[in-house]
Amino acid sequence: MHESVYDEVKIKEWYELYSNQIFRYIFVMIRDRQQARDLMQETFLNAFKHINDFRGDSNPRTWLYQIARNVTIDYQRKKRPITYFITTFSPVKSNEPTPQEILELGEDMDLLFQALSKMKPIYREVIILRKLKEFSIKETAEILGWKESRVKTMLHRGLNELRQEMLKGGYSSERI
Amino acid sequence: MKEFDEKKEFDHLFHKINDVNLTKQEHSESLQHIFSEMKQEKKRTMFRFNFTRAFAIIGTTILLISSVLFLNEVLEQQTNFIGNNETEENDSTKEGLISTLTDYKFREIDWFSSEEELLSHENLAKEDAIISADGLTIQNPDTVTFSEVDSTFEIFYDFDSGTNTFVAGKYIESFEDEEEFITSVSRIKNAMIAKFGEPIMGNPEDLESVPAPRAGLKGIEWRSNEGSLLRLHISNNDGFVEGDPPYLVIIQLSAPRSSIDSLLPIRPADENISTIRTVLQEQFTGPDKNIVELLTAEENITSIGRDNEDDTEEQDSSPYLDAYLAEKYKPFFTESAYDTYIATHGVDYHWLADVNDYTLIASGFDISETIENTYDFTVDVIYKKKGNEHKNALVTGRANMNEDGKISFIQFLDDDGLLEALQK
To answer: Rounded to the nearest 5°, which phi and psi values hold at B126?
Structure first.
């Protein structure tokens, strides 16, 4: 009970530093702004509840992303309990439109989002962590619970697939 | 055509996404929401705590009036609760704190007990226990007073999120007054050093002064031969939350570290050892509920897939279980070794553990290269049947690695009777 006082200080610090990043990460994963905001809040609440599990020698940013990832996965499981199993292991075609605020960021953003939605979730995840959040290979491995070599392999394969999807959608390779 | 550069490819598109931010209003409202949720939980906890305490006081008063005999019984129960039922009352109050930490166990509770076992051991009804929203921390509604150090503590029990077993216990004492705080810390520290010797980490002298406000925890640490950790921590949260006592003393005892480490991400230097260890950890930590659910729901899930007209994927006998096992193990094996491994060990330990109510934890690993690319391993597996004390099995075996760092052969030479035990 009283231990939470110290914990609240940490949560406040981390919120100021990382709330926007965590929100963006979840938003790109689920494409629903309001829901992404709710899950971001849930991420920090879970961090508060599990703060005793946080080891001082690891990076709070990486740890928070692990929680955000779990919160997002749980949300997707609850939302689509059957299809989650299918989509976890195989690519599916998404009919979900690209959010308006992403479209407003400029040309080719729709293409990028549509391409990402057609990819295997494991490729999508590793690309988002590396490209959007700019985590190192080591940090990405820590968040995903993978070996670094697997991150490299999945990133390589994922980018190949993303490139193919982008080209199929009409993206000009000259601009890559 | 321009060469693709993986390092920079699509970066300009991804960087645009960084323009998506919470508005100032959303940022501030979300922060308020988070803190409001934290405070509500604290209020709920306080309400339940006060109600239970008041109820206990009234009940105890009635019992005191009704029978002296019953009073003796109540006192005996109190003594048991403190955890020292082998000595007389005066001795128990003098040695209460230390006796509840003896043998690096918290209140004599077996590590890796289930919630049910812990509540039973503590004579605590589940409806009286204060359980966190995630179910991983339980607070005892009662406090415990250790008169050898003249301090009253709240009691917390922590459970591992993966196996949902008891892995740490905490006593927490709070103070409004700085002088009382330091005096109490000194008494507790001296009692613990007298019993457990000089700490292996931290400087006892650091505990002689009040920490700077909100500077975090500082403290000292002991470790048992088995790897259990005992910590004495203090903190100063002065002024952060109005109404909360600023000074905290935390005594924490946690399960053998090798067991805890096995539940955390691992980073050994040798990639081959890392690969073998990952596979062994997955194999001997469980039961893996996904495997069990996919096994039991196989028919149901498969039929759902078959009813879907758009589903053009080939249906074999167990596509989702295969997919799950492949995700879990395939990256670590060559093609043929993977098939052999899954056929021989894919689900049996997890399935039997689930059917017969066991929890498995791979708690320690000894993996070494004996000849080039051949590794001998021993895994210390803790297995515990619901309602019983935990046991250990030393599983030994051998693995061969190929040049790509994949397992080309693995064999359990002796599982120390584990598979047989799980069938009981």
So the answer is: -60, -35
Instruction: Kindly tell me if the per-residue pLDDT of A22 is higher than 90.
Output: yes
Contacts of B322 in chain A (CB under 8 A): none
SS3 at position A104: coil
Q: Tens digits of per-residue pLDDT, B345-403?
A: 878 888 889 888 888 888 778 888 878 788 888 888 888 888 887 888 889 889 999 88
**Residues with Cβ < 8 Å from B235, sequence gap 6 or more?**
A6, B211, B215, B216, B217, B218, B247, B248, B250
Pair of tokens at residue B153: 């503590």
Sort B167 into a burial class: Cβ within 10 Å, 0-12 / 13-18 / 19+.
buried
Is residue A163 within 8 angstroms of chain B, CB to CB?
yes
* Residues in A touching B275 (Cβ below 8 Å): 147
Which runs of consecutive H residues, i.e. helices, occur in B18-161? 24-66, 68-82, 89-99, 115-121
Confidence of residue B63 (pLDDT cuts 50, 70, 90): low
Residue among A101, A149, A176 minimizing CB distance to B271 = A149
Cβ–Cβ gap A27/B214 under 8 Å: no
Q: By the 8 A CB rule, do A129 and A144 touch?
A: yes
Residues B77, A152: Cα–Cα separation, whole Å: 59
Q: How many angstroms separate the first and last alpha carbons of chain B?
A: 66
Read off the pLDDT of residues A45-101 as tens digits, 9 standing for 90 and up.
988 888 877 766 668 888 899 899 888 887 876 665 434 333 333 333 345 567 777
Residue B298 banded pLDDT, cuts 50, 70, 90: very low
B274 neighbourhood in chain A, CB within 8 Å = 147
Helix (H, G, I), strand (E, B) or coil at A148: helix
Total Cβ atoms within 10 A of residue A5: 22
Q: What is the pLDDT of residues B253-293, one digit of tens each?
A: 888 754 444 443 333 457 888 899 889 988 998 888 888 88
Q: Report the 10 Å Cβ neighbour count for B355.
A: 12
Cβ of residue A48 closer than 8 Å to a chain B Cβ: yes
Residue A23, pLDDT > 90, answer yes
Strand partners, B156: B139, B170
Q: Render B313-369 in DSSP notation, one character per residue.
A: S---S-HHHHHHHHHHHGGGB-HHHHHHHHHHHSSHHHHHHHHTTEEEEEEEEEEEE
Nearest to A95 by CA among A113, A78, A122, A108: A113
Model pLDDT, residue B332: 93
Residues 357-396 of B with CB under 8 A from A: none
Instruction: Using the Cα atoms of residue B289, residue A158, residue A36 and residue A112 in order, give the sign of their dihedral.
Output: negative
With 0.80 as the threshold, say if the pTM is over it: no
- Report yes or no: B84 and B95 within 8 Å, Cβ to Cβ: yes
Closest CA to B113 of B400, B385, B405: B385
Q: What distance in Å separates the CA atoms of residue B204 and residue B238, rounded to the nearest whole number?
A: 22
A19 to B31: CB separation less than 8 angstroms, yes or no: yes
Interface residue A150 vs chain B (CB under 8 A): yes
The helix (run of H) or strand (run of E) holding residue A94 is none
- A105 with B16: Cβ contact below 8 A: yes
- Of B279, B254, B394, B253, the C-alpha closest to B345 is B279
